[in-house]
Amino acid sequence: MLEAVGLACVRQSRKLFADLDLRVGPGESLRVAGANGSGKTSLLRILCGLLSPSAGEVRWHGAPIAGLREEYTKQLLYLGHAPAVKDDLTPQENLHIASCLSGMKRGSEEIRSALARFGVPDQPVRRLSQGQKRRAALSRLCLSAAVPLWLLDEPFTALDSEGTSLLKLLVEEHARRGAMVVFTTHQDPGIAASRVLELG
Amino acid sequence: MLAAVRCIVYRDLLLAMRRRSDVATALLFFVIVASLFPLGIGAEPEQLRAVAPGVIWVAALLSSLLSLRRLFESDHADGTLEQMLLGSAPLGVIAAAKAAAHWLVAGLPLVAIAPLIALQYGLPSDLYGVLALSLALGTPVLSLIGGIGAALTLGLRGGGVLLALLVLPLYVPVLILGAGAVGMAAAGLAPGAQLLLLGAALVVAAAFAPWAIAAALRISSE
C-alpha cells in the first residue's frame, strides 16, 4: 500500500501543490493528470524518494519511505521523463544493465523477448527514433512483473497507437496481478479501473 | 551488491570502448602538457631532470581533471543516474564502482605511459618504478576526490570551472607526496615515507569518498 499524507512541493519558491493526500492499494492504478508545470513529475519523484517533499511524508505499507531507502526502492520501478538508455549501447545491453542495477538479473533470452514484444530493433540506441527509444525503456516493464509498484512518468509520450495499446495492456495486467501503478499523462489513455488525481 | 559493482564497471568500460576518442583526448592531453615544458624552459638536461617529477604529476592532475566532468554528466542527462539512485545496491557502492571505472579509463593509462614521459625528461631508469608506483597510488585518490567535486557540480552552469576550483586545492597533498616520492628517489633517498602516506591517503579516500559522492549525488539530483 502506497500512501502520501499532507504532501507539499515548492520548487524555485513556487508552490506546486500542498496538502495532497493519496492512497494506492493493491490492484489499483492511479493516473496523475494536470497542466504543464502542475507538478506531476515532482509528485512522482517524491513518491519514489528522489525528491524530498516540502511537507508531509510518503509511506510504504505504513512505514515512511525516508527510513526504508533500498528496502523500498527494491520494490518499485520508476521510469522517468528521460528514458535512461545509453545511446552508445544496444537496447539489449541497456536492458541487461538496467535489470542488473535493479537487482533482478535476467537472462538474455528473457531480455530478447521483452524487446521483441515492444518491437525494438537490435542496433545501437543512437540510431533509434524517439518512439523506439521510449519502447526500449518501456521493455523493462515486461521484466518487472514481480515488482509491486510501478511509477511511470509520461510513459505514453512519443508512442504510436500500437505502442500505446501494448502499454495500456501491460498496466492493466499489472493491476490485475494485485500490484500498484501510478502514472502521469495529459490525455486519458482509457485504462480500465484507473482512478484520476488532478493536479493544479 | 557485487553484481551491481561488476555491472557498473563493465558498463563504463564498454562505454569508454565505444567512445575511444574521449579516452584518447585525456591521454594525449597528458602527453602534450608534459611535452610542452621542455620547449618552454629549455633543453638543459639537469634542469629537466629536476622539474620532471613535478611536471609529470601536474600534467597527470590536469588530465584527470579533464575527464572528471564526464563521470556523472551523461548519466545525469539521460536519466541513468536516477536509476542508480533507485537501484538495489547502496549508492556509496555504486559511486565507488564509478570511481574505479574512471580510474581504469583515465588513471591507469597515465601510470602506463608515465615512464615514456620520464624517458623524454632524461630521468634515470631506476626512477621509473617509483614514478609509476606513486602514480598508481595517487591517481585513484584523484578519481575519488574528483568524484565528490563532479557530483557536487552536476547540472550547474559553468560547472567545469567550478569543479576545477573546488577540486584542485584538494589535490595538493597528493601532488606534494607523489612528486616528493620521485624527488626523494632521485636524490638517492628512500621514498618509502611518501609512498606509504600516498597509500594511506588512498585507503582513507576509498573508505570515505564514495559516501561523500553518494551524498552529493542525492543533493544534486533533487
Write the layout of secondary structure elements.
The complex is a heterodimer of chains A (200) and B (222).
Chain A lengths: L1 E10 L2 E11 L4 E6 L5 H9 L6 E6 L2 E2 L5 H4 L2 E4 L11 H11 L6 H10 L12 H9 L1 H4 L5 E4 L8 H16 L3 E5 L9 E6 L1
Parallel strand pairs in A: 3-8, 3-9, 6-7, 7-8
Antiparallel strand pairs in A: 1-2, 1-4, 4-5
Chain B lengths: L1 H17 L1 H22 L3 H24 L1 H9 L1 H6 L5 H30 L7 H25 L6 H28 L5 H29 L2
Helix pairs in contact in B: 1-6, 2-3, 2-6, 3-6, 3-7, 3-8, 6-7, 6-9, 7-8, 7-9, 8-9
Unreliable residue runs of chain A: none
Which pair has the most extensive contact? Answer: A-B, 29 and 26 residues
- Structure annotation, total helices of chain B: 9
* Number of domain units of chain B: 1
By helix and strand content of chain A, what is the structural category?
alpha/beta
Query: Runs of chain B with pLDDT <50, length 5+?
Result: none
How are helices and strands ordered from N to C of chain A? Answer: EEEHEEHEHHHHEHEE
Q: What is the string of helix and strand elements of chain B?
A: HHHHHHHHH
Strand order of the largest sheet of chain A: 6-7-8-3-9
| Helical content band of chain B | over 70%
Roughly what is the average pLDDT of chain A, rounded to an integer? 90
Question: Could you walk me through the main structural features you see in this protein, from its secondary elements to its overall organization?
Answer:
The complex is a heterodimer of chains A (about 200) and B (about 220). Chain A is of the alpha/beta class and about 200 residues long. In chain A, a hairpin with a 2-residue loop joins β1 and β2 (about 15-25). Helices cover about 30% and strands about 25% of the residues of chain A. Chain A has helices at about 40-50, 70-75, 90-100, 110-115, 130-140, 140-145, 160-175, and strands at about 1-10, 15-25, 30-35, 55-60, 65, 75-80, 150, 180-185, 195-200. The model of chain A has no long low-confidence stretch (mean pLDDT about 90). Chain B has about 220 residues and is mainly α. Chain B has one domain (about 1-220). Chain B contains nine helices and no strands. Chain B has helices at about 1-20, 20-40, 45-70, 70-80, 80-85, 90-120, 130-150, 160-185, 190-220. In chain B, α1 crosses α6 (about 90-120) and α6 packs antiparallel against α7. The two termini of chain B are about 25 Å apart. The chains are: A alpha/beta (about 200), B mainly alpha (about 220). The interface between A and B is medium-sized, with 29 and 26 residues.
